[in-house]
Every structure is written in structure tokens, then in C-alpha cells.
Amino acid sequence: MFTGIVEELGEVVAVEDLGDSPPAHAGGTPTRFRLRGPLVTEDAKHGDSIAVNGVCLTVVDTAEGEFTADVMAETLRRSSLGALAAGSRVNLERPMALGGRLGGHLVQGHVDGTGTITERTPGEHWEIVKVALPPHLARYVVEKGSITVDGVSLTVVDAADDYFTISLIPTTLDLTTLGIKKAGDPVNLEVDVLAKYVERLLGRGADDRDDIEAAKETAR
Length: 220
Fold this sequence. Notes:
Blueprint: E1 8-17, E2 31-36, E3 49-52, E4 55-63, E5 66-71, H1 73-78, E6 89-93, E7 113-122, E8 127-132, E9 146-149, E10 152-159, E11 163-168, H2 170-175, E12 186-191, H3 193-219
Antiparallel strand pairs: 1-2, 1-6, 2-5, 3-4, 3-6, 4-5, 7-8, 7-12, 8-11, 9-10, 9-12, 10-11
GO molecular function, one term: riboflavin synthase activity
Protein name: Riboflavin synthase
EC number: 2.5.1.9
């Protein structure tokens, strides 16, 4: 689990198409990324997890402040990682240590979809950013609720059926990719996992009530 508190603004060093891999099911071919992140790699080893723009990736190896990670076609299809190239800046975060502070909110690193930045409105001390929202995710986004944007834990300011807005403080603008992204750029979105579990449980409850009523009718 992650918290959505970015530890380091890293950089993509190289992108390698794994052409010798089996054909991808959909959405591109598997890819190997080499990324620079001296802070997040100082204690990383093979098999560890590091979130890259909000996507939980497994470390293949590390060397001199860099690490490599393989990204499968499903991940490329569901996230914006396929748009990365050498020189792209990325948000990096290591998993939360057990007993550590939960500075943001519970983040799995499992991207639900991508949004698109549509507007940026600068203010004196912060900036309001509007993000177009895929329709199937709108029901999980609520005013003053939590959402992860490119791996950054943020509070929703306004929520609508097809967009939401967030307010970015100077620290977020300076230390994450959200300070350099422009209108038209894609961002990875992960909605609050608690909302998805609640929806599932409420749906299961309705199914259970239907089953009970059906059993009563059968017993009559």
C-alpha cells in the first residue's frame, strides 16, 4: 500500500520494447523502463515495489540510483505509462512501512483509468486544475473526498459527472509532475478503494435480499 505522498520527482532514463515477449492481449507490447530515483532506490532490491505516477511496479534491478521495471500490456492500456519517453519526469513513492504515518490516504497503486487535464487556473498561493473524468469513475468521486492523480493524494474540490477539480499548493506544484503538466496531458487516476468496496457490499446485500425472498416464495 502507498499513501499518495510523492517522495521524489524522478526521470525516465530509457524505454525498451520487449519484442521477444509473447504477443500482448491488447493495448501494446510489454515494455521495460529504466528510471532514475536515488532516494527511492537507496534501500530497494529485486522484487520490491515502487509507485511510478501512481502505478505500482516491481523492481527488476537497481544500480547507481536507477531501477528497472517491466510493464505489461494491461498496465499500459489502463494507465498513461505508455506515453512516457526518455526524459519524462515521474512521481515516485515507496510503499508505506508498517507503523508509518498515513500522510495521504490508502492508495493501492492500481490505476482505475486515465483522465485529461483540461484547465489550469493559477491563483496567488495555489492553482486550480480541472480534470476530465471517465464516466465509469464519476460515481466514486465526491466533493471533499480523496482521489489519486498521477500518484498524488489529493482532495476533490468540485465533482461533476464528467470532471472534477483539485487545488494544488506550491509544494505539490514544485515537487510533483502536476506542476509541469499542461492542458491536454493525461493523468493516472485511482479512486478511493473504500468507495468501491462499499458499492460492492451494498450490491451484494441487495442480491442477498433477493435470494432470501426467492427462497421464501419457493418454500410457500
